[in-house]
Amino acid sequence: MAGTRRAWLSVVTGVVATLIYFGTAELIARSLDVASAPALLIGQALIPLMPTVLIKSAIAVFGTHDKLALVITIVAGGAGCGALIGWIGARRQGLALVLLIGFGLLPAVVGFSSGAGLAATGPSLGGAAAGAAAFLVLLHLAGTADHSSADTAAGDDQQNRSPARPGRRAFFGLAAGLSAVGIAAVAAGQSAATLARSAAGTVTKLVLPRPATSAPEIPAGAELDVSGLTPLVTETSDFYRIDTALFPPAIDAGTWMLRVHGMVENEFTITMVEILDLPLQEHYVTLTCVSNEVGGDLVGNSKWLGYPIRDLLARAKPHTGADMVLSGSDDGFTASTPLEVLTDDRAALLAVAMNGHALPRDHGYPARLVVPGLYGYVSATKWVTDIEVTRFADREAYWTTRGWSTHGPVLVASRIDVPRPGATVAPKSGDRIITAGMAWAQHTGVAKVQVRIDNGDWAEAELSEELTTDTWRQWRCEHTGLSSGTHTVAVRAIDQAGNVQTSERRPPIPGAATGLHERQFTIE
Q1: pTM of the model
Q2: Closest listed residue to residue 448, CA positions, set 477, 409, 481, 478
């Protein structure tokens, strides 16, 4: 009985020591302003190793919170390892201590081997020291508490009134306190990281020039007056973020350079100062993630400022036979984009600003690619530092090495914003019900949106005026004669090429969600 009790106390010791490790390392990392907290180092190392199905499932479940979910999972997994180490410590304290320290130093090794430098080892070293100290103190208290309990069980009345309960209370009191400190430190570190990223995105040294070509004025008919409908232009703070960087790179715009090379006559590098001296253009472009679920929110529309990629490529003069541009990010991500897409008349930009301000750090500061009509995984490289002109037969990008399609044209899609899921709706002006939402088919353009209720006939919706073919459009539809009770509304879009949003859409894009968006609501 005493041995079992001692083992459980040791398990608790291991969990608490692990939480102290993560918490201490997190606070040290934040104070040094380096992305070297153990959870981040481990997470960044795990992301490239994850199978596609797991990544898509995480995005489907957690959306833009997928990275926070990964950090929480890593900390929880670490606590599980701590429990196992604690269990070992009940029998072999020395071995358990070695295992705990080794566990604590593993992220430092991962970070150093990935080129993070010696500074990146500091948080893990500090966290390992704090975790080891907590482990030894709690193991000692666990032994004291166990002996006190054994004495109590022996039936000594005098002992019952002395250290038995205080010994156990001391252990669990200290364990609870240290756990709270560790969890709070992790949470505070993550919050500080979020604030630091926000500050980096709004306080910038870039002085943006006036665009040589301004974005078109938004016509009055481009936005429909429907409460609850998504705005035409997405606020930067609301724009979705899906990428492979657990922690966005911190890049100095003053030293940033873009290298253009490969199958070209003229290789060159260009600095941010040189980019800002070029005739920049403004364009509204809607971007969509291939992992967006039917009816999902991984889509947004912004006003981008940048330099046409086709002009950069014209300066480089691609060789005959080249058919792909492999863009590379500072964080190691790559995307393969068809050369013909980047050299036609679409607004494909090396973007430096978003909605009138320099790019936020989360969205690619100081420069990223924006390409209308393609899913982000084959085009929207953030923190871009490299453009290589090559061939699909010769090179593969980050996601294509994981079995994803080499080409990712955006499929025509639509969603319902109004009414909200499960809403109870009061008819307007008699029995009139309004449904509304968004539709997109970037660079092809939305031609029609159709709506039906309860598998009835399709009715054509009213479309907002088109801003450009590269942006989404709002739609609304009025319905009359519906009875009280629960109803199902469905929507589909048709693009200018005649492609209809159905589960049989073509061309097929592996991983892209297909189907009609449906939603239930109740009429009073």
Answers
A1: 0.73
A2: 477
